[in-house]
Amino acid sequence: MAISTNQFKNGNHIEVDGTVFKILEVQHVKPGKGGAFVRTKLRRASDGNVIDRTFRAGEKFRAVRTEARKMQFLYTDGSNAHFMDTESFEQIEVPQGAVQDMLRWTKPSTEVDLLFIDGQPADVQLPSAVDLEITQTDPGVRGDSVSGGGTKPATLETGAVIQVPLFVEQGERIRVDTRSGDYVARA
Length: 187
Known about the structure:
The chain has 187 residues and is mainly β. Helix content is 4%, strand content 54%. A hairpin with a 2-residue loop joins strand 2 (13-16) and strand 3 (19-29).
C-alpha cells in the first residue's frame, strides 16, 4: 500500500529510500510560481535522528505497518532500553537512541505503549502529559507567586531537568507535556 504526500499526518510512518521514518511535522507549500511541495521533519526509526526533507506534491511512499503493544519499561543499560510484555513476560531490547526522548518522562516499572514497525520494536508512545515528582529544585523565596513570573530549573524523578515556575517546591508532583517538555501545572 502506498501513501501520498497529501495524506501525510504527524505521527505517520513512511519508508523513504529503504529507511523507516516517523513524520514529526508536515507543511504543505504552494508557491506562486512552480509546483507545490511538502516540507517535513522526520525522525529515523532506527536511531532517533531527526532530519528535514522536502518532497514534491503527489510523491508516493510505502506506508509502514505499525502496531502498539502494552509493555512495562524495566531499565536502561547505557545502550539499550529493556521492556517486558505484561502478558507473556517476554523481554525486549530497543536501542536507547531510538527511544531516548520518551524515556525522559518514563519511570522504571511504568506501563507504556511500545510501537512495533513492521514487527520490530521501534518507539515508545506516551500520553501527551505525565505527572512526575520534583526531586531537586531551589527553594521558593517569599514573594514567589503564581503571578510573579520567572522560572527555575527542577530535576524530576526520571532525571530530566525542566524549567518550572518559581513557586513550585521540591517534593511536589507536576504535570509535564511530553511533546515539548514544558511544565503544565501542579498535579
